[in-house]
Amino acid sequence: MTYIRPAFRHPELPRNELGFTRKDYEGAISTLCAGCGHDSISAAIVQACFELSIAPHKVAKLSGIGCSSKTPTYFLGNSHGFNSVHGRMPSVATGANLANRDLIYVGVSGDGDTASIGMGQFTHAVRRNLNMMYVVENNGCYGLTKGQDSATADIGSASKKGEPNHFEPIDLASVALQLGATFVARSFSGDRQQLVPLIKAAISHRGFAFIDVISPCVTFNNNPKSTKGYEHVRDHLAATGTVDYVPFKQEISTEYEQGQSKEVTLHDGSVVHLHKADPELDLNSRRSALRLIKDYKAKDQILTGLLFMDEKSQDLHEILGTSKTPLRDLGEAELCPGQKVLDKLNESLR
Amino acid sequence: MKRIEAVNDFVIKFANVNGTGSASANNMFAKSLFRMGLPISPKNIFPSNIQGLPTWYEVRVNENGYLGRRGGVDMMVCMNPQSMAKDIQEVEAGGYFFYDSSKPLDLRLMRSDIHFIGVPLKDLCQREYSDARQQQLFRNIIYVGALSALLDIEFDVLTGLVSDQFRGKEKLITPNVRALEIGYHYAAEHYQCPLGIRVERRDEVGDQILIDGNTAASLGAIYGGATVAAWYPITPSTSVVDGFDKYCKRLRIDPGSGNKNYAIVQAEDELAAIGMVIGASWNGARAFTATSGPGISLMSEFLGLAYFAEIPTVLIDVQRAGPSTGMPTRTQQSDVLACAYASHGDTKHVLLFPATPRECFEMSADAFDLAETLQTPVIMLTDLDLGMNDTMSPPLVWDDKREYKRGKVFNEEQLEAMIERFGRYLDVDGDGIPYRTYPGTHPTKGAFFTRGTSRDEYAVYTEDGDAYEKNMQRLLKKWDTAKNLVPMPELIEANKGGSKVGVIHFGTSRDATLEAIDALAAEGIAVDTLRIKGFPFHKSVDAFIEQHDTVFVVDQNRDAQMRTLLVNECLVSPRDLISILNYNGTPITARKIRDEIIAVLRGDNVRPLHKKKMAKESV
Fold it and tell me: Biological process GO annotation list (chain A) (predicted)?
């Protein structure tokens, strides 16, 4: 939504551990439609990064093409961003991550960008367990080209034009689970309470953290016959439970019922706590997550929340065994073997 | 009957079946001549197949150092009944046909004008070895032994090569030497050795090495500081990344931790490969990919983004005959235009054209300096001929004092000290090259949002037409800057003052072109040559065309792509440039170039001889 945002901020805005205010994590003013779910997600990313006390310039934001891929302009204005090629953000993120393992990588994509044109790259980034947070802002349609169905649209769901979709939808959370994503969650752009801790956990997770966020398109796909409109999603939500993210060094104060809760300690010492609503969910079991997604879908419900976590996995750098120093910081001394080595090599080629 | 007589100047071709272990025997043969001080140029002519189809290995020996394909075959070593009929036809009159005489030759294939030399390889093997696999492998070594007698190859050189090859596996040395001896003795006893064609030790190799261009390019990437390689397997470029992997394992492991000072990712396709390179380069690492024609097509969208977003990108294109289901194992120079103008919108890319393994090494290292200096894609265009064949080359040299040119990058201190606003696409120095920052450099300064062109000089989103035009003009200015940074063309004048006839060539046409020019000189025709080593073209390319009345352009593709590029970029009339083309999948020969130049100069052909100056003035 285009509007004028006052530059004035209250002088005593709360500051995080690094001394930054929430404002330091904001970006340019959004040019998306008023009420777009994507803007809520941007706000949740801002909130999560502020609360995590991440130095804003230590994040790299990457996206493909589409409405969702425009959003990195609208958050973290002090971070480098890269609006790449349609469906190809995963490869750019992979290269960026290889160059500097010390930054935090936030990828934002849409359902067209990920489930259609970028399906190949998405699946392979998952397989490699690339250390990044990958958010799909999923509205079931192509917004920037005026409302065509996307590959995540449910059968029978109709966009503004009224034509129901006939093709089997791709469930990206299930795909991510099957291909080995080590953190999988689903959320709703209208549920900030759930989304912010999920983003915090995803950013702290080492490995590929996937969040499928249902984010209604107010202009082209928010009508009564759409299964990705605000009304339908609100009426059909079910959650795996309440997620708490507890940063390192902070005591866990909330008490949960035995057997209904699960604590996962991440590699940086922070803890993700899930108070389960469904005792069936086993957070470390892909099979359990996949089954529950199906069970709820059969009941015409959308299961949201944290679905799966494997906190002990190896990310791409660990699998490859690359240097602890970011590759981009290596210089001639480490990289260039020099003439003496060439002399020997020349000799062996005679 | 005529008998070809030649010392240190002949072409020998081996006809083998793919997957029978002939490659190492043939390499041993070629290297033995090299170690006798003789210039050689071995070339693999192989199918897209792992086992069973015909494959050839052609070695030219020439003590004058002519390394291009000459054309014609003086001796054929026939190890493949499948291709025998055609192979016999290929031998020059008076030449030699070496075959396995365990079975009699088909009389219908006999020619009366060539010499047949039969050695019962199969029978000799069966007598010596009981194991079927050994029979096959040693059959190859036995024919090398026989050739040693027939061509007068020093036997000690061969045994020395066997020792080198099996260092660490000593028990394999004796049976291999034994196989060489079996062949040698049979030939010596049954034929008058040596034949009319033979070798004699010379000192014409000096300190040169034998290496393929892909390996040399991979070493260039290591020396040039590449840390990220992303690729998708495709013939004939695969061995670039194989080489990078092999030598990184030796040269790039941190001795303390055992960690790798590099990362190689086999991508899901070429789109992802170039995307990874762009991502890594954007984030400050030196990264590259290697591919061939079909990969260039797939990478084109991303190349456009890298051009407009001004991200250094290094790409090695080992060209092959197109298309994907074309002749992937045959050579061509047919990606020139696809690379020069890859992508949508107004794009053009810096190209490098190496002609020798040493240039593959140097240009691959230089490509990183160029790409980072210019903040744009740099494509090194080699081809299968250079990339996959062992080629004689001056030794690889590196200046230990050399520092990488990382281009215009602001670091944290510079940003901290900066008072004015940072403009990612601002032409501060007037050379069209802006300053960039790596992600994560400074908490509050220097961050920008990377996108194609819908932005102003400060990388802020805009769709304003004036901002777009201004940016495109700056990119042109940068292109002009590039003209003086890419390698200069190499001019060779036939005599002082130069000739009125000129030949422009590039890449692997070099050897054949220079040999053809020597042949023409011997016939009294002086021809100047200009070898293009980079694109955009240096102004001396325009001058060369201007100064010569007749200008030939040697292209190893059907559509005269380099000629088109010259016409397009140098504002010359197409009439001014006469094409010499070769596109059958094998390297161009000196004979072809010489014959076509002669035909035009003699007027055998209706093409115009003289430039129409009017055409140029009307441009």
Answer: cellular respiration; small molecule metabolic process
Task: Report d(CA B83, CA B70) in Å as an integer.
Answer: 21
Please report, rounded to a whole number, the percentage of residues in chain B having pLDDT higher than 70: 97
CATH top-level class for B490-617? alpha beta
Q: Looking at chain B, which residue has its C-alpha nearest residue A19?
A: B443
User: In this structure, how many other beta carbons lie within 10 angstroms of the beta carbon of residue B16?
Assistant: 23
The CATH superfamily holding the domain B6-198 is Pyruvate-ferredoxin oxidoreductase, PFOR, domain III (3.40.920.10)
| Closest Cα in chain A, distance from residue B363 (Å) | 16
Q: Which B residues, 272 through 331, put their C-beta within 8 Å of a C-beta on chain A?
A: 272-285, 287, 301-302, 305
A56 → chain B, closest CA residue: B443
Question: CATH 3.40.50.970: does it fit domain A22-321?
Answer: yes
CB within 8 Å of chain A, chain B residues 408-437: 437
Q: What local confidence, expressed as pLDDT, does residue A257 receive?
A: 62
> Under a CB-based contact definition with an 8 Å cutoff, are residues B376 and B310 in contact?
yes
CB spacing of B209 vs A346 below 8 angstroms: yes
Counting every residue written for chain B, the total comes to: 619
Give the relative orientation of helices A89-99 and B270-282 as an angle to the nearest 10 degrees.
50
Q: How many CA atoms lie within 13 A of B258 on its CB side?
A: 2
Which ipTM score applies to this complex?
0.95
Residue B319 has pLDDT above 70, yes or no: yes
The pTM assigned to this predicted structure is: 0.95
* B263 in A contact zone (CB under 8 Å): yes
- Domain ranges in chain B are 6-198, 211-393, 490-617
- Residues 135-164 on B with a CB inside 8 Å of A are none
| Any A CB within 8 A of B475 CB | no
Domain boundaries, chain A: 22-321
Pairing of strands B350-352, B377-383: parallel
Give the gap in angstroms from C-alpha A192 to the nearest C-alpha of chain B. Answer: 26
- B36-55: average pLDDT: 90
How much is the CA Rg of chain A, to the nearest whole Å?
21
Strands A261-265 and A271-276, sheet pairing: antiparallel
Q: Examine residue B323 and say whether the peptide bond preceding it is cis (omega within 30 degrees of 0).
A: yes
Chain position carrying tokens 């033979």: B198
| Domains B211-393 and B490-617 fall in the same CATH topology | yes
Reported CATH class of domain B211-393: alpha beta
Nearest to A56 among B267, B273, B443 (CB): B443
pLDDT band at A200 (very low <50, low <70, confident <90, very high): very high
Q: Which residues contact B252 (CB under 8 A, 6 or more apart)?
A: A335, B222, B260, B261, B262
